[in-house]
């Protein structure tokens, strides 16, 4: 068994170091690169936390939608081929829901500050309020 | 940043003699940006009492740029000169580099002071007045760009809508990174293909917030002409309204600062074609998809080691932004449907 701190704990420590210690000492291109590096670590952190669940759920939906088994990559290629050939489209039951869920799960890990995503999340919150 | 820099000042001094007469020095030479293909330097040419702030735009190194498509830098200089002839705000091009200058491919133009950083243009108080009329200014400038006629620019392609979409599709197939949202979007594009047009117009190809240099008064200069081609004038109108170029201000479709109504009205008033909103929408979808494919291409460059920078890898992970925008464009009622 590996000791603690975990990889994710250490990653967060590096992130903290970059943002709070390294970045204030830098300017220009170096500051920009460190900011990008810190953003990358933050993405990795979200991926470590969330990718397993998100990809398992995506694979489960794909299996049901396509009625076949395979890796997530294989199933996505089968779905792409079905759309390309016109066998599936937005009128296919379950497909729009699958695409929305997959895309929202993906962007929550990759670009959660993207304005389109944030506006949809706000909209959703407003709608559940009485 | 460039091993050739020690010689760069001397080479510039020699090259510029033909247009400025005797110069004493090149001063304050500094890199502004180094793209994957091209680099941009700012400097001042100095002669006794005078000082000219200038820009050098050239292909990296002294080798000729290796590009599969797009126009050359000489071509870009010719386009900027032609655009100036139609009163498009662009810098004066002083000089196009020759092989004997040993500076690579490129040209030298005036440096125009102003702001290009989108978030500042959208948020700084000093641009509050400009923001009110910027969409209209974009409309009249696009009408002027679409009137430009220029001959003899190598690589300046003429493409009907279907040819442009097929070009994007080819890029996508070559990449072999398929995704269901991109597949749906291609089906939609082929199903909604606009008819051919009689006479194609000059299209800027990258007219967006980020490539517009502004002052508090006006749009002062249109930058980055390397995506220019002859095509459907609605391409530029749709492209300018992509969510990706609104930089957070998504309720203002034109670059995050204005309305489509203002853009279209000014475009028509300045002599542009009658705007067909459905056609502009088609291109907004097409170029959102194209940007997503470009993100995926950058992921591929990172993975192949062609550009292993963190920045390149991170842009690769922005494909999902375009997938979300495409879903919203194609299936607006679908959110919360499940």
Structure notes:
The complex is a heterodimer of chains A (130) and B (338). Chain A is mainly alpha-helical and 130 residues long. Chain A has one domain (7-112). Chain A is built from 5 helices and no strands. Chain A has helices at 7-22, 28-66, 72-84, 95-110, 115-128. The model of chain A has no long low-confidence stretch (mean pLDDT 94). By secondary structure, chain B is α+β, with helices and mostly antiparallel strands. In chain B, the strands form 3 sheets. Chain B has a 5-stranded antiparallel beta sheet with strand order 1-2-3-5-4, with helices on both faces. A two-stranded antiparallel sheet of chain B has the order 6-9. Chain B has a two-stranded antiparallel sheet with strand order 7-8. The model of chain B is unreliable at 62-68 (pLDDT under 50). In chain B, α6 (180-191) runs antiparallel to α9 (277-304) and α6 (180-191) crosses α11. Helix content of chain B is 43%, strand content 15%. Chain B has 2 domains: 5-110, Phosphorylase Kinase, domain 1, CATH 3.30.200; 118-334, Aminoglycoside phosphotransferase (APH), C-terminal lobe (Aminoglycoside 3'-phosphotransferase, Chain: A, domain 2), CATH 3.90.1200.10. The A-B interface holds A 33, 36-37, 39-40, 43, 76-77, 79-80, 83-84, 86, 89-90, 96-104, 106-107, 110-111, 114-117, 119-120, 123-124, 127 and B 178-181, 183-184, 186-187, 243, 246-250, 310-311, 313-314, 317-318, 320-321, 323-325, 327-328, 330-331, 334-338.
């Amino acid at each position: 068994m590996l000791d603690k701190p975990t990889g994710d704990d250490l990653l967060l420590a590096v992130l903290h170091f970059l943002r709070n210690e390294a970045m204030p000492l830098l300017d220009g291109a170096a500051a920009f690169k460190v900011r990008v590096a810190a953003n990358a670590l933050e993405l990795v952190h979200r991926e470590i936390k969330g990718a397993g669940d998100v990809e398992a759920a995506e694979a489960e939906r794909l299996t049901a939608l396509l009625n076949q088994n395979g890796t997530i990559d294989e199933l996505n290629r089968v779905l792409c081929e079905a759309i390309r050939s016109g066998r599936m489209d937005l009128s296919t039951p379950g497909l729009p829901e699958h695409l929305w869920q997959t895309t929202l799960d993906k962007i929550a890990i990759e670009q959660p500050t993207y304005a389109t995503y944030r506006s949809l999340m706000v909209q959703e919150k407003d709608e559940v309020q009485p | 940043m460039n091993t050739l820099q020690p010689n760069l000042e001397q080479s510039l001094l020699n090259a510029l003699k033909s247009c400025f007469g005797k110069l004493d020095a090149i001063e304050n030479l500094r890199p502004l940006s180094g793209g994957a293909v091209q680099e941009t330097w700012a400097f001042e040419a100095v002669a006794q009492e005078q000082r000219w702030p200038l820009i050098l735009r050239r292909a990296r190194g002294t080798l000729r740029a290796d590009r599969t498509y797009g126009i050359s830098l000489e071509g870009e200089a010719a386009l900027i000169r032609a655009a100036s002839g139609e009163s498009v705000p662009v810098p004066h091009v002083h000089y196009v580099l020759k092989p004997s200058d040993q500076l690579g491919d490129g040209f030298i133009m005036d440096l125009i002071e102003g702001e290009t950083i989108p978030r500042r243009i959208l948020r700084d108080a000093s641009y509050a007045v400009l923001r009110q009329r910027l969409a209209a200014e974009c409309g009249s400038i696009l009408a002027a760009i679409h009137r430009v006629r220029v001959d003899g620019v190598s690589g300046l392609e003429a493409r009907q809508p279907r040819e442009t979409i097929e070009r994007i599709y080819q890029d996508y197939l070559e990449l072999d990174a398929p995704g269901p949202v991109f597949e749906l979007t291609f089906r939609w594009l082929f199903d909604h293909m606009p008819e051919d047009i009689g006479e194609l117009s000059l299209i800027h190809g990258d007219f967006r917030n980020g490539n517009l240099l502004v002052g508090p008064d006006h749009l002062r200069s249109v930058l980055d002409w390397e995506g220019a081609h002859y095509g459907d004038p609605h391409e530029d109108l749709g492209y300018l309204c992509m969510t990706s170029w609104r930089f957070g201000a998504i309720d203002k479709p034109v670059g995050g600062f204005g309305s489509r109504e203002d853009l279209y009205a000014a475009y028509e008033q300045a002599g542009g074609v009658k705007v067909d909103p459905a056609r502009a929408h088609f291109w907004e979808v097409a170029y959102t998809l194209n940007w997503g494919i470009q993100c995926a291409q950058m992921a591929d460059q990172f993975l192949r080691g062609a550009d292993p920078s963190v920045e390149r890898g991170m842009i690769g992970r922005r494909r999902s932004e375009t997938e979300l925008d495409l879903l919203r464009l194609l299936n607006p009622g679908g959110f919360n449907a499940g």
